[in-house]
Amino acid sequence: MICPSYLVATMSNKEVKTALKSARDAIRNKEYKEALKHCKAVLKQEKNNYNAWVFIGLAAAELEQPDQSKGAYKKAIELEPNQLLAWQGLANLYEKSNQTDVKGDLADVYQKLLELYESGDKQKWFDVCNKLVELYHQEKKYLEVAETWQKLIQKKQEEGAEKAELHQLWKKMTQLLKDSTQNQDNKTEQSLLTAFEHAVNSAETVPSEDHQNLYKEFIQCLSKFPHEAARLEKACNDMMALYPTVSYPLEVLCLHFVQSGTLSEEALHCFSRLLEMDASSGPGIIGFGIKCFQEKKYKEAVKSLTEGLKKTSQCPAAWHYLAEAQRKIHRYRDAVLSCNQALEALGIPEGPSLRWKNLILQLKAEALIKIADADAAEEAIKALEQIVDASSDPVVLAIRGQAYLIKGLMDQASEISQELLLSHPDLAQSHALEGFIHYFQKNYEQAERSFLNAIERRAETAEYHQYLGLTYWFMSDETKKDKGKAVAQFLKAAKLDSYLGSVFRYLGNYYRDIAGDKSRACGCYKKAFELDGTDEESGTAAVDLSVELGDTDTALSILNEVTGKASVGTAKWAWLHRGLYYLRTGQPSQAVADLQAALRADPKDSNCWESLGEAYLSRGSYSTALKSFRKASELNPELVYSIYKAAAVEQILGKYDNAIATYQQILKKAEDYVPALKGLGECHLMLARSALDNYLDRKAVDYIEQALEFFARATKHRPDVSCLWKLLGDTCTSVHVISPTKVNVQVLGFLMGKNAGKQMLKKSEMLRLGERCYGTALKLMPLPSIWCDLGINYYRQAEHLTAAGTDVNETNELLAKSLQCLKKAVRLDSKNHLYWNALGVVASCSAIGNYALAQHSFIKSVQAEQINVVAWTNLGVLYLATGNIEPAHEAFKIAQSLEPSYLLCWIGQALIAETVGSYDTMDLFRHTTELSMHNEGAKGYAHWVCSTLQDKSNRNTELYLYNIVQMNAIPAAQVVLSKYTERNPDDASAFTMLGYLNEYLHLKRQAADAYERAASLLKNSEDTEKYNTAMQNYGRSLCALGQCDKAIEVYTSIPLTEFDGIVGVALAYFKKGLLQESIKAYEKALSVAESEQDKAHILTALAIIEYKQNKLDAAKALLFKCSLKEPSTESLTALCTLGLVKQDATLATAALKELLKHEKGDDRIYERCLLASAVYALQGRNAGVQREVSRAIHSNPDNPALWSLLSRLVPLYASQKAKGGAVAGNVAHALDVNHGKEVLLNIAVNQLAAGCHMLEDEKNNPLKNIQKAIRLCPDNPAAWAVLMAACHAENTVVCLNDTQPKRTDLEMTLVSTVSAKTGENNLPHNYVQTLEDWCLCQAITSLEESGKLSEAEALCTKGLKSRPEHPALFLLLRQVQCKQLLQSHKELPDNILEELHKTVMTSSTSVAAWQANVSNEHWPSLVQEATTEALKLSFCPLAALLQALLQYNRKMGARETRRMLERVVYQPGNPETIVSVARWYLLQHLYAKDDYELIDVLIENAKANGDVRALQLNETLSSSA
User: Fold this and answer.
1) 110: pLDDT strictly greater than 90
2) CA-CA distance, 1403 to 1411, in Å (whole number)?
3) What would the mean pLDDT of 257-268 be, rounded to a whole number?
4) What is the pLDDT of residue 190?
C-alpha cells in the first residue's frame, strides 16, 4: 500500500491541496469512499493530477474494485511514466490478484521497477528481481529465470558480495533451473551447468556433506545430457578425487559406460573399483555381468545382470545384455521379458536411444521365434514392424520369414526366402531360411543342401548344424544310424553351443536306441535336462535310465531338483515319477502328495489317478482311494484295472453290494477276468458270513452258493492258483453252523469230478468238498495256514457227524486227522497263536478229551500273542468244563480286560454266575445279547426271562422291575430266541420258551407255531409229561387265535387231569359256543381247584356263560357269590359290566366302588378308568366322564392308552373341548405309534367337532388325518364313515368361500364302502346298524346340500324300506320334501307343517331335528322355538347362529343383533365355518351403523382366522361407503 506521506503537492491551487490532504487523511483512516470523493473533486478542477489518480487507484483497490484501480494507475503512469508511485501501486494490485492473465503484465511492471530502482534503491532492486525470478519460475520460463538471476549475481559481484553469498546464489540458481532439463533448451542447459560449476567451485567448506550432495546433483544433472559425456567423466573423476570413499560417481560413470555400449579398459577398471568399494552396488554387479558376457560365461552373466538390475532397474543397455545372455543359454521366454523391461526403461527413444530400441526389438523377435508357437510368432512380427528401416535389413527380413513359417504362412515365408536368395545370395540367413522351410515341409534332401550352404557361409552357427543333424535324423534310418551324418552334426552343434539342450537329447536318443550305450545315453539326457529344465523327455529318460542302471540316488536328486523349483500345476512328469518311486519304496504319504501335484498339472490323466488310488490304498485311505479309482475309470472306461481296484476298495470298506455291481461291470467286458471272479466270490462269502452272524441262515446259503459259483469259475480259468482253492474250502466249511435241513447248495460239476452241469450237495457233502479243496491248495502251496484250515474242516465234519448221531469210529477218525493237521501247522509255524488256539479247541473236545494238550496249546497261544482274547476265553471254558471255577473266572476276567466287547468271555462269566447262583446271572446273559448273537447267550437269557416271568410273586420287586420292565426283557429275549430256533430247529425247550414269550407279546400266531413245533419234537420222546404240557400250550394258543375246533381236538388228544388243561378245554368249548360242555368242564375244574382264587375265577366264568344264555339273575347270583367269599377283580369287573349292560346304575356304581377298593396301583388303570367313565355316562354326568380320564392321565401322563381314551370320549361327552381331544390324540400317537390306527381316527373326529378344515391348515386337518388312518387300517368301517364326514365338511367350507367343491359325487361310493367293510368284519350287530344308519343320513344330507334333492329323496325312500320305523330317516325325508316345496316359493300347507312337527317330536332329543326347521318369513316363531329347544339339550353353535340370523332378519340395526352375532364370532371353540357366516353378517351390521372401531376389531379377527370372504366383503363395503 502506498503511504500518503510520499505524495508531493505540485499545484499552487490551495483548494486542490486541501482536497488532496483530505484524501490522504481519509486513506490513512481507511475511509476509502471518502478519499474517492476528494480525489474526484480534485480531478474536476485538474484532470491530469497524478496524485489524485494514484489515490483513486489505492482507494479502489482497497474497496475491491480492481478494474477501476488498474485504470487509475495506468492513467497516472501515462501522465508520469518515470514516477515510482503508480508502478508500485500497480505491482501491489497485480500481486493481490488471483487472475492468471495478469502474470505477464506483472512481469512487465517488475521490469520497469528494476529500471527505476537500478540507479536508486539497490535493496528494492534486489527485492523486485527476486519477485521477477519467482514469477518466471512459476511460469516455467527457465531461460528468463537464468538471465534475470545471472543479472542479480552480476550486481552482487559488482557490489563486492562475499563468496559465501555468491555460492548460495549459484546454488539457488541450480535449484531454480533443475526442472529445466526436460525443455531441451541448450542455452538454459548451459546456464544450469555453469551454475552447478560455480556452485561447486565456490563452496567454502570442502569436503563437506553439503558439497558432496551438490556434486551428486551436478553429476546427476550431467547424466541426463548424453552429449555432455566428457563433462560428466570429468565431474565424476573430480568428485572421486575429492571423495574417494563415495561410490556414487563411480556408479554413474559405470552406468554411463554401460549405456554407451563401449567397454574399454577404463570401463572395466571402473567396474572392478566399484565392486571393491561396494560389493552390493547395482551398477558394479551389472558391469561384472557384462564382463562375464564378453567372456562367454553366460550363466554367470545372467546371474549377475539379474542381481544388478534388481538394484538398478532403469538401464536399458543392461536389460539388453541380460536378454542377450538369456538367449545364448536358450531361456527365450526370460529373454522376451528382459527385452520388454529394456523397452520400458528406454521410454520414448531419440538419438542414440533409437539404436538401442532397434537392437532390443530385433533381439526380442529372435527370442520369440525360438519359443516356436503361433502367438509368439505374431508378437515377433509386431516387434519387427517397430524397427526403423526394418525393410532394408536382410537379417530382419530373414527373421520375419521364420516368423511366417512358424505361423504356418508358408507362402509368405517362401516369398521372403526367394527374395533374400536373389538379393543376398551370400548371406547365411538366406540359405538357412530356405532350409527351415524345406525342413518343415519334410523335403529333407533340399533342406540338407540349404543347411550345407548356410554352414558354408557361417560354420560357427550351432543352430545350422543342429537342424542339419535333425534333417539327417528324420531323412532315413541309414542317415540316422550313420555316425558321419546325424550324430556328427549333433556333436558339432554341441561343441559350438554347449547350452543347446535339444542336441544332447538327440545324442541320448542315439546312444540309447541305436548304439545301445545306456550309460552314455544317460549322461546325455542328464546334460540336456541340466541345460533345459523344461525338457520333460530328457528328464524322464534320465530318471528311467538312472533307475535301470541302479543309480536311484541320481534319479531321485533329479526329481527333487525339478519338484523343488516347480510351481503349482507344472512339472507333471517329475511329480509322477517321484510319486511312483515313493509308492514302490513303501512311502505312501509322500507318494500321495507327489501324485496330487502331478494331477494339478494334468487333472485328466487317468493313469495318474490310478497311481494316486494305489497310493491312497497303501496308506489306508480307502474312501479317497475309491474316489481316485473311480475318477480314473471315468476318464478312461477301458482301464479295467481301475474298475477292479475300485471294486476291491468297496469290498474292503464293506460295501459288498456296490463291489458286486462293479465286479459285474468288469465281467461284462471280460467274462474270464479272474481277479473280478475272485472278488465276487469274496464279496458273497463276506455277505454269507454277515448273514450267519445275524442268524439269517437261508440268505447265507444263497450267498454261499453264489460264492462257490464265482470261485469255481475262477479256478476253472486258473487251476494253478492256491488261494482260489483255499477260498473254495473256506466257503464250503462256512456251512458248519447251519442246520443240515437248510443246506442244499448247487455247485459246478467239475468241482465234484464231473464234466458238466451242477450238483446239489448236502451239509456233509459240502464239508467234504471243502476238505478236497484244501487238499488241492496244499498240493499247490503247502502253507501252515492251509494245514490249519484243513484241520478245522475235519473238526467241523466231526461236529456234524456227532450232531447227526452217526458212527463214532468215523467221528474219531476225523478228529484224529484234525489233530494231525493242526500239529503239522504248529510244527511249520510255532509262533502263530491261531494254530495253537485251534489245536487247543480240538484237543479239548469231549471225543478226544486231551485236556493237558488243550491247556498247553492255549497257554502257548497266549505266549505267542499277548493280546489274545480268544485263547484266554477258550482256556476259561476248559477250566469251567473241568470244574475249576476260580481259574475259569480269572481267565474270563483277563479276556474281558483285553477286549471288553468280546462276547464269549461274557457268556463264560454268565455260566459261572449261573453255576454259583449269583443274582447277576440274568444281567450277564442280557449283556451277552446286547453285544452280539450267540446260541449260549440267547438261550441262557431267554431261560432266565421265562423263569422270572413264571414267578408271579416278584412283580413288584426291584429286581423284576429292572431286569424285565426297565431292560425291555421280553421283546429282547423273543428276538434272540427266534434267531436261536432258526438255527437250532430241533430244540423243543427253546420253542416252548419262544411260544411263552410270544404269548406275552400278544403274538398269537407265532406263539401257536412255536408250541406246535415243540409238541412235534416231543411227540416221540419218552417224557410224556413234557409232551402233554406242550400240547396244552398248543391248545391254549389255538384257542387264543379263535381256532376252537382244533384247540378242542388238541386238548382231547391228551389225558386232562390237571387244572390248567381242564380250564383250557372249558374255554375252548365256551368260545366254540358249546356252553353245556364248557359248564361241565368248568365244574370239573372247580372240583380240582385248590385255591379260593381259582374257584372265584371259575365261578366268574360260569356267570359269563349264564349271561350268554340270557340268565341274568343266575349270572348275577354267581357273581355275588364270588364277591361274598373272596372277591376277585375279575368277578367285580364282570359284575360292574353286568350293571352297565342292564343299565343298572346302582349295581354298576356299587361294583365299581368295591373294585376300586381291591385294585390299586397302575397295573389295570386303563380298565378301571374305562369302567368309571362308563358309569359316569350311565349316570348322565358327561363332564365327569372327561374329568375321570383327565385325572387318570394326570397320575399317569406316560400312558398312551389313557390319552387315546380321552381323545375318543371328548367328542362324545365334551364336544366343546374338541381341540383338546385332538391334542390328546396327538400325544397318544407320540407316546406309542402302535396306537396310530385308533388315534388318527379320534384326532379326525375331534377336529371335525372343532370345525377345523383344510383352509386353516393344509397339513393337519381332519381329511388328512382320516386318510392316514385309512392307509393304516383300510378295513375299519368307522374310518370310512369319518372320511365321509370330512369330505362333507370340506365341501361346506369351500362353498362358504365361493370356490368350487373338489370332493363331489362320493356319497354313494362311501356308503357302499362302509357296508362292504362292516360285512367283512365280525362286528356287533347294533354297532353295524348304527354305523350304516349314520352313513345313510350323512349321504342324504350331503346330497341335499349339494342340491340333488331327487337323489336324496330316493335314498331316503330306499332306506325307509329296510328301516320303516327309523325316525331320523323319516325326518330327513320330510326335510327334503319341505325344501323342494320352499324352493317352489309356495306356502307350506298346514298338513305338511303338522307332519314336520310330528316328525320333530318323535326325535325330540335330537339337536339336528330341532335345527331342521329352517327359518322362513312365514314362521319365525317356529324357528325361535326349535333353536331354543336345541340349545336346552346342549350348547349348539349352529342353533346360536340361527337365532342371531333370525334377529338380524327381524331388526338388522338393533344392538341385540350385534350382541348375538358377536357371541357366535368371539365365543372360543366355535367351528370356523359357523363363525365365518356370523362374521359376514356382523360386518354388514357394523357398516350399517358406521361403527369403524368395531369394524377394525372384526377385520383383525378375520385376518387372524384367514376369513377371505369377510375380507373381500370389507373391501366391497369400504369402497362403496
Assistant:
1) no
2) 11
3) 64
4) 66
Contact of 1330 with 1347, CB cutoff 8 Å: no
Backbone angles phi, psi at 210, to 5 degrees: -65, -45
Cell of 1391: 298338513
Give the residue ranges of DSSP H helices in 1232-1348: 1236-1249, 1262-1272, 1277-1296, 1307-1320, 1325-1345
In this structure, the number of other CB atoms found within 10 A of the CB of residue 653 comes to 14
0.70 exceeded by pTM: no
Distance CA 785, CA 781 (A): 10
Residue in the structure block whose three cell numbers are 383300510: 1274
Q: pLDDT tens digits for 500-556?
A: 888 888 889 988 888 888 889 899 988 888 888 778 888 889 888 888 888 888 888
Please give the helix or strand (H or E) that residue 281 lies within, else none: none
Helices 248-260, 265-277: inter-axial angle, 10-degree rounding: 140
What percent of the chain is predicted at pLDDT more than 90?
20
Q: What is the pLDDT of residue 853?
A: 93
In Å, what is the CA distance from 744 to each residue of 184, 738, 1500? 111, 11, 76
Q: DSSP letters of 1385-1416?
A: T-PPPHHHHHHHHHHHHHTTT-HHHHHTS---
Can you read off the three cell numbers belonging to residue 1002?
A: 400278544
Contact criterion met (CB below 8 Å) for 399 and 435:
no
Ranges of beta strands (E only) in 879-931 are none
What does the H/E/C string look like for 953-978? HHCCCHHHHHHHHHCCHHHHHHHHHH
pLDDT at 925: 92
Provide the greatest CA pair distance for the chain. 176
- The CA angle 93-96-101, to the nearest 5 degrees, is 80
1409 pLDDT tier (thresholds 50, 70, 90): very low
Grid cell listed for 271: 567396474
> Counting Cβ atoms within 10 Å, is residue 1453 exposed (0-12), middle (13-18) or buried (19+)?
exposed
User: How far apart are alpha carbons 76 and 49 in whole angstroms?
Assistant: 8
Alpha-carbon span 473 to 486, nearest angstrom: 6
* Residue 1037 CB-density burial (10 A; 0-12 exposed, 13-18 middle, 19+ buried): buried
**What 3-state class would DSSP assign to 760?**
strand
Rounded to an integer, what is the distance from CA 287 to the centroid of its chain? 60
Give residue 112's identity as a one-letter amino acid code.
K
- The DSSP symbol for 228 reads G
**What is the Cα Rg of the chain in Å?**
59
Helix pair 50-62, 84-96: axis angle to 10 deg: 10
One DSSP character per residue, 1428-1440 reads HHHHHHS--HHHH
Neighbours of 1419 (CB within 10 A): 16
Q: Tell me, what DSSP letter sits at residue 1042?
A: T
Please give the backbone phi and psi of residue 759, each rounded to the nearest 5 degrees, phi first. Answer: -120, 140
For 705, the enclosing helix (H) or strand (E) is: helix 697-717
> How far is the C-alpha of 1486 from the C-alpha of 466, rounded, in Å?
107
User: How far apart are the C-alpha atoms of 57 and 73, rounded to whole Å?
Assistant: 5
3-state class (DSSP) for residue 743: coil
Length of the chain: 1521
The pLDDT tens digits of the residues spanning 297-326 come to 888 888 887 887 787 777 777 787 888 888
For 392-423, give the DSSP string.
Answer: G-HHHHHHHHHHHHHHT-HHHHHHHHHHHHHH
Cβ pair 869, 898 in contact under 8 A = yes
User: Which residues have a Cβ under 8 Å from the Cβ of 334 and sit 6 or more positions away?
Assistant: 326
Alpha carbon separation from 335 to 325, 328, 500, 868, 1010 (Å, rounded): 8, 9, 16, 70, 93
Q: Could you report the per-residue pLDDT of 1218-1259, keeping only the tens digit for each? A: 888 888 888 888 887 776 667 888 888 887 888 887 777 777
The rounded distance, in Å, linking the Cα atoms of 1235 and 437 is 92
**Residue in this structure with the C-alpha cell 336324496, named with its chain if needed:** 1352
DSSP structural state of residue 483? I
